[in-house]
């Protein structure tokens, strides 16, 4: 067997075989300009296409697959780009056929359909499969126009308001606001050397340096939920950064000593009405400070 050394842009002639066969009997001869494992995966994908189910090679692939086996691939010769790889592929197919190997190739090789003869039954199947299908040329003009639109969009000037927000907001959000593609926003950002906007909901987002100053200034001055909506993140993320910076929440900062002294002296709903907060807020604050409810304190007094 020829020793094969792969160089850039070489064409490799290869064979497929059953990995369980110790003799590695060739079952298919082909050529590839890409990595052989990639070419093998292409073969496997093709064998599963309905239009190619009747191919001898596809039937062999499915037989192996049903037995839990994947075809193996190995190179047999490397042909430098520019040389006639067609002649070498034809040579190997003819050689293996003359040796009696059961190749699954449909042609003699070289040009894909060289010397391929279709039976009348196969011709009818092909005709039936193609009936009703649109012409391969149909829609090409439309695709060309769409491609031109994409090219024009990539050179579209963005408003200054959008340019000023590059790197300060998600590319997708800026694209939505400007009515352009995300790719265009990304390209403009990279052209100006602006790094990607960091997602504040990631662990790295807890770094205050990744937060806009206006958002940091609002920590503890507005409800976490309100700030979270403005940033487009969850309130838990806001709360975690606020606690990391040792900033009290708006609810905590609004609890003066006078208000705290009222906790447990009256029912929670009464205290809530007096200080202008919800009953739930009073209940949470009271329990967090370990203060018994008004009714429980009455019971304790009666017990004494």
Polypeptide structure, described:
The radius of gyration is 36 Å and the shape is elongated. The termini are far apart. It contains 16 helices and three strands. The chain has helices at residues 36-47, 56-66, 85-98, 120-130, 140-154, 160-163, 171-178, 182-191, 213-218, 224-231, 235-244, 250-253, 257-262, 268-275, 279-288, 294-303, and strands at 11-17, 28-32, 72-79. Strands 2-1-3 form a three-stranded antiparallel beta sheet, with helices on both faces. It folds into four domains: 11-128; 143-191, no CATH class; 203-251; 254-303, no CATH class. By secondary structure, it is mostly helical. The relative contact order is 0.06. Helix content is 48%, strand content 7%.
Blueprint (SSEs and pairs):
Blueprint: E1 11-17, E2 28-32, H1 36-47, H2 56-66, E3 72-79, H3 85-98, H4 120-130, H5 140-154, H6 160-163, H7 171-178, H8 182-191, H9 213-218, H10 224-231, H11 235-244, H12 250-253, H13 257-262, H14 268-275, H15 279-288, H16 294-303
Antiparallel strand pairs: 1-2, 1-3
Helix pairs in contact: 1-2, 7-8, 10-11, 14-15
Question: What keywords describe this structure?
Answer:
304 residues, 3-stranded antiparallel beta sheet, disordered N terminus, elongated
Gist of the model:
With 304 residues, the chain is mostly helical. The chain folds into 4 domains: 11-128; 143-191, no CATH class; 203-251; 254-303, no CATH class. The protein contains 16 helices and 3 strands.
């Amino acid at each position: 067997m020829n020793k094969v050394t792969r160089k850039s842009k070489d064409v490799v002639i290869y064979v497929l075989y059953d990995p369980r066969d110790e003799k590695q009997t060739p079952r298919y001869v082909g050529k590839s300009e890409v990595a052989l494992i990639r070419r093998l995966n292409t073969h496997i994908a093709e064998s599963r296409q309905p239009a190619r189910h009747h191919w001898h090679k596809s039937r062999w692939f499915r037989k192996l697959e049903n037995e839990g086996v994947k075809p193996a691939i190995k190179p047999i010769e490397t042909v430098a780009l520019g040389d006639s790889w067609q002649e070498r592929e034809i040579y190997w197919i003819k050689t293996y056929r003359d040796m009696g190997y059961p190749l699954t190739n449909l042609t003699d090789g070289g040009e894909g359909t060289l010397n391929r003869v279709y039976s009348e039954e196969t011709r009818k199947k092909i005709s039936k499969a193609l009936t009703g299908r649109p012409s391969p040329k149909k829609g090409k003009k439309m695709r060309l126009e769409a491609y031109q639109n994409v090219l024009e969009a990539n050179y579209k000037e963005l408003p200054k308001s959008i340019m000023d927000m590059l790197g300060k907001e998600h590319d997708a959000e800026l694209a939505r606001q400007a009515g352009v593609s995300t790719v265009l926003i990304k390209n403009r950002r990279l052209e100006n050397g602006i790094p990607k906007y960091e997602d504040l909901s990631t662990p790295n987002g807890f770094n205050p340096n990744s937060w806009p100053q206006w958002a940091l200034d609002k920590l503890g001055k507005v409800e976490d939920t309100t700030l979270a909506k403005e940033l487009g993140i969850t309130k838990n993320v806001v709360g975690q950064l606020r606690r990391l910076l040792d900033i009290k929440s708006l609810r905590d900062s609004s609890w003066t000593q006078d208000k705290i002294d009222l906790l447990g002296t009256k029912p929670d709903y009464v205290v809530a009405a007096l200080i202008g907060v919800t009953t739930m807020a009073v209940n949470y604050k009271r329990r967090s400070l370990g203060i018994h409810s008004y009714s429980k304190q009455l019971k304790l007094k009666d017990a004494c």
